[in-house]
Amino acid sequence: MPQHRPASAAPAHQATITPALAESMAAAGLEPGRSPAPVRLPDAGALFQRRADRLRRLMPGHRLSGWLAFIAQVSDAQHALAAIPVTGATDPAVRWRQDLDGLRERLSGRLPDMAERALAALPWGDADALSAAADRLRTGTLREEEIGGAPFLVAALQVAWTRMASGLTAGAVAASAVADHCPVCGSEPVAGVIHAGSEASGRRYLHCGLCHTAWHHVRSACVCCGEGNRIDLQRVEGAAETGSDAGGGTSNAAQAETCESCHSYLKLFVEEKAPGLDPVADDLASFALDILVSDAGFQRIGGNPFLAQAG
User: Fold this and answer.
1) Parallel/antiparallel/unpaired status of strands 254-259 and 231-236
2) Which pLDDT does position 178 carry in this prediction?
3) CA quadruple 124, 141, 298, 302: dihedral, nearest 10
4) Angle at 101 between CA 97 and CA 103, to 5 degrees
5) Domains of the chain (ranges plus CATH)?
6) Among 87, 116, 127, 226, which has the minimal tally of Cβ within 10 Å of its Cβ?
7) What's the angle, vertex CA 209, arms to CA 255 and CA 105, rounded to 5?
8) H/E/C letters for each residue in the chain?
């Protein structure tokens, strides 16, 4: 059963900066001794490799180990693409198609049978059909027959948008402290992260699942409706989804911030409890929490792009 306790806007106690936590903070753009900025831009050259590594840490003993392994393999291909200097079109709305071709080149013939068939079934010879499927993916209106190929569309879009976001200047990106959509690409957050560290302890950043920008959002208000008095934090008591990942697993770090006013919830991770966490990877590995909270009548704010559903 989920465990309930009131949410608090007060910062958590200061965490000890271990080497693993320092690495995680660096990945999130956090620098000891400096105040957190409203926006944290991604490092396209490192993000996907860190995600692949995190997924493989979460795999042993996990009931969804096969799915995590597949996304780790896709993340490896994303990392290889992101490391290549871009020539030609840089607009992510155009560039993602080239990245999709690059993913096919790196993944075809190396995937599990079902994923291999899904990759081959994409309408490779029809640019308009691919673009239409990508549009439906972003608006949550995918057709049932497009679900199998969705992870590859997601992966290509992520590479293109993350590459673009990483080239921006954080100070030039405006983000309200109550923004509920990404200030760079307009996507909903995949999750929130309560950061640790002397200058960021207890601060919540929302993380985009498309361009991987993170933006600060006040903890005292529901991300959906702004209510601050009817928020609870829920987690799966005694959860053990992550097997051998002792000390860095997702189950202890994953929470759901539920709002009784609008009946929405935000997936929330506590960095101090899982140094090195990746919001997309850790969200996939804590899917049981989503099931429990959804069954209790709450609707998720945002979502994981690798868990796309038919519209």
Assistant:
1) antiparallel
2) 86
3) 60
4) 110
5) 2-42+175-307 (3.90.1670.10), 47-166 (3.90.1670.10)
6) 87
7) 130
8) CEEEEECCCCCCCCCCCCHHHHHHHHHCCCCCCCCCCCEECCCCCCHHHHHHHHHHHHCCCCCCHHHHHHHHHHHHHHHHHHCCCCCCCCCHHHHHHHHHHHHHHHHCCCCCHHHHHHHHHCCCCCHHHHHHHHHHHHHCCECHHHCCCHHHHHHHHHHHHHHHHHCCCHHHCCCCCCCCCCCCCCCCEEEEEECCCCCCCCCEEEEECCCCCEEECCCCCCCCCCCCCCEEEEEECCCCCCCCCCCCCCCCCEEEEEECCCCEEEEEEEHHHCCCCCHHHHHHCCHHHHHHHHHCCCEECCCCHHHCCEC
Q: Using alpha carbons only, what angle is made at residue 183 by residues 285 and 173, rounded to the nearest 5 degrees?
A: 125
- CA 287 to the chain's CA centroid: 13
Q: CA 179 to CA 68: how far, in whole Å?
A: 30
pLDDT tens for residues 34-80?
445 789 999 999 999 999 999 999 999 999 999 999 999 999 999 99
Residue 173 is encoded by which pair of tokens? 């990106």
pLDDT tens figures, 250-285:
667 899 999 999 999 999 999 988 888 999 999 999
Token pair of 189 as six digits: 């957050």
The amino acid that residue 268 corresponds to is L
End-to-end Cα spacing for the chain: 30
